[in-house]
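Memo to structure team: turn this sequence into C-alpha cells by end of day. - J.P.
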Amino acid sequence: MIGLRGQESSAMRVCSAVLGLAVVALIQPATAVADYVHTVMPGESLTSVAAADGLSVQQLAAANGLSPTAQLVTGMALQIPPQAATPAAGTTAVVLPTQAAGSGDGDGDDPASMVAESSAAPVSSAGAAVGGGAYVVAPGDTLTAIAARAGMTVAELAAANGLDPSAPLLAGSVLRLSTTGPTYTSSTTATAASQPVGAAAEGSPVNPPYPTPQTVTPSQVGSIAAANGVPSSLADAIAYQESGFNNDLVSSADARGVMQILPGTWDWIQHTLVPGASPLAPASALDNVRGGVLLLRSLLDSTGDNPALAAAGYFQGLPSVQQYGVYPSTQQYVNDVMALAQRFGGG
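Reply from structure team:
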C-alpha cells in the first residue's frame, strides 16, 4: 500500500460493499479445467512441488517463467499447469477458481485481515472492450481470435500482456490491445515529490484500481519492470511483499491489487506518470503492476536510483519520508524488501 504508512486512521476500511454498487461482477468460476495456484510453503522447492503434482521440474518452471534451478520464495504463488499436453496459442479461455489471499501485503497487516474481492470484480461484461485499448476475455476466446480482431499477431498480443502464447487464457482477464504499453518518461512534472499521502492517497473508495481474481508471475512483473527501467528484482520483491503476486487483495487501508495501490495514488499515477499514453486498465492485474512500477521509476528518479529509499517512499510516501524521516515500520518494510530483492536475483 502506497504513501499512507504512519497516517492510517481507524476510519479506513475495505470498500467491497461500495465497490459492489459501482461495478459489475466477473464471470464466476466454473471448474478448474486448467491451472490452479499453489502457495509455496517453507522448505518447498520446484522439485518437491512438481513431484507432488505429477509434473517435471521443467514443466513447472516453464509454466511460471522460472529457471529450473530457481529458488522458491515462501508464499510465492505458483501456477500448476494441467498434466495434459501444453495448450497451443489458440486454446480457448478457461475460468479458474478464485485464489486465496497471498502471504504478503506490505501494510504490516496480518494476512487474515486481507479481503478477497472476487464477488465484486469491477470490469465490463466478459468479451467486451473496456476502453483504453483493452478487452475483457470471455470464456471460449483465444489469443488467435482476439489478436485477429485487434489486427495484431499472436506474438504481439502475448508480448503486450506479458503472456506465454502457449499458456491457458484466463476468462475475465483484461488484455491490452496495443503493442506499446504505457512507458515512463521523465519530466519536470513526473516526480515523486508530488506523490499523494494521507487522505489524498486514499481517494474515493468507488474509484479504481479494482481487485480481480488473478495472479501474476515474477517473470511478468520483471518484464514490466525492465521495460520501464526498474530493476526486476526490486519490483518482484515489492509485488511479493505487498500481495504475494495476487491481484485479489484489498488491505485494511483500502490498498488494492498486486502492488497494493490506493485509489488516490492510482489517479495520480494515471494523470502524472502516463499522460498521453494508453490509460491503465482499472481491473487488470498486469496494469496494476505497471502502475506500481511507474511509481517505482519515479521514486528511483527522485532518490538518485537508491532502491532502499525508493522502497521507503513506496511504503510511506516520499514526501512524508522527506519531511518526517523513515518511520520504524517503514524501515522494517525496507529491510524485508531488500532481503527479498536479493532472493529474486538482485545484486
